[in-house]
Amino acid sequence: MISTVWPLLLGMGVLMLGAGLQGTLLGLRATLEGIPAPVTGAIMSCYYVGYLLGTFGAPRLVRKVGHIRVFAALAAVASATILVQGSFVNAPLWAVMRLVSGVCFAGIYVVAESWLNAGASRSNRGTLLATYMLVLYVGLGSAQFLLNLADPSTATPFMLVSVLISLAMIPIVLSSHHSPETHVPMKVRYRDLYKNSPLGVVAVTVSGMISSTIFAMGPVYARLSGLDTAGVAEFMAVSILCGTLTQYPMGRLSDRMDRRTVIAIVCTIATFSAGSIVVFPHMPHFLFLTMAGAFSAFVLTLYSLAVSHVNDKLEPGQMIAASSALLSLNGTAAAIAPILAGSLMAAFGPQSYFETLAILTGALTIYDLWRKLRRSATPAAQKGPFITAQPQGMTGQIVQGAELQK
């Protein structure tokens, strides 16, 4: 199993080092350059806009020229965009490059999804996807410490990102395994999705806002709160790596009880964690990191839980079509959230970061409980297995489509 996809896992691991460093670096550098938080949020949002655009064209491009060529070409362009950003500190130019980067990563993860799906079977898919998710999170989390290797106010860390993205191409291009075929997803009506699973659709949307706020505006919050470069790296590493701890425990729990109850538990703990940081802004640093890590550990399971809940209501033939619609909803919300968070931070201070996150999770908790009163739980016999997934636009993870094609 692993022997057939190790080039992908190695390449994606290296790519995540570059992608993880890139996102944090841009937010930190923008703050150092005095770019206002709303403008920084708009710049970071352009990635998700580009990603949405890329998801429409990437599958067709892959079918025309092949997976490996698409991966190599788009990785080369993505590598070039970060060099442009490091060479010219200009907000409009950064926004354009961020959009182009989003388009490139959309194509890159279409390749990853197809490759994973081809190497997976019913018997090993869970293990394979768990390994893939572990590689992604470890790469993203470890990348945060690369900030300490060079002054973020110089072009050096931008060059490092470019090198990592370029190196990620090597195992993919030199792989002796044939790349699989990719199918363009069908259309699906959002109204029908909402009718089948209102909570699932709303939770997928809210998770897009939360995740993009963490990844895009977390570095800005940390810097504006007075943390130095090492502190920013530590905060982001904790926020990302803690997401590896609860994926499967919460997923397995949701297979054994009403997923809506698990989503309510996740949101309640996340609301308490974020709210504690807001109410006690001067708590000891270790306790602050603990609460921030607890928030991320639980809230980063929200997308997987929501997708699994939606699929409990669908027929097998509807799942692939539904995945495309859910990703579009998630990506659209992800594009809006950094602008909103940046504007609130500019108006009310950096504490608005966790205030916004607490409000989102708190509101979803209330909606969840209301939905439980409106509709009975899904019978255990009709529940599908838990789907380990992260939204494509957050960090590039694209596991859902592979898992749905069982």
What is the H/E string?
HHHHHHHHHHHHHHHHHH
Return the CATH architecture: Up-down Bundle
Helix content: over 70%
CATH fold description: Growth Hormone, Chain: A
Overall 3D shape? globular
Global Rg: 20 Å
What is the domain total for the residues? 1
Strand content: under 5%
Which spans have pLDDT < 50 for at least 5 consecutive residues? Answer: 395-406
From the helix content, strand content and strand pairing, which structural class follows? Answer: mainly alpha
Q: Tally the beta strands.
A: 0
Q: What is the residue-mean pLDDT, rounded to a whole number?
A: 83
Within CATH, the superfamily carries the name MFS general substrate transporter like domains
Highest-level CATH class: Mainly Alpha
User: If helices are DSSP runs of H or I spanning 4 or more residues, what is the number of helices?
Assistant: 18
How far the N terminus sits from the C terminus, by CA atoms, comes to 16 Å
Largest sheet: none
Short description:
With 406 residues, the chain is an all-alpha fold. The protein has helices at 2-32, 37-65, 67-87, 91-119, 125-143, 156-167, 169-173, 190-196, 198-224, 229-241, 247-256, 259-279, 285-299, 302-312, 319-348, 352-374, 392-395, 400-404.
Could you please describe the fold and organization of this structure?
This protein has 406 residues and is mainly α. It has one domain: Growth Hormone, Chain: A (Up-down Bundle), CATH 1.20.1250.20. Helices cover 77% and strands 0% of the residues. Helix 2 (37-65) crosses helix 9 (198-224), helix 3 (67-87) runs antiparallel to helix 6 and helix 10 (229-241) packs parallel to helix 13 (285-299). The radius of gyration is 20 Å and the shape is globular.
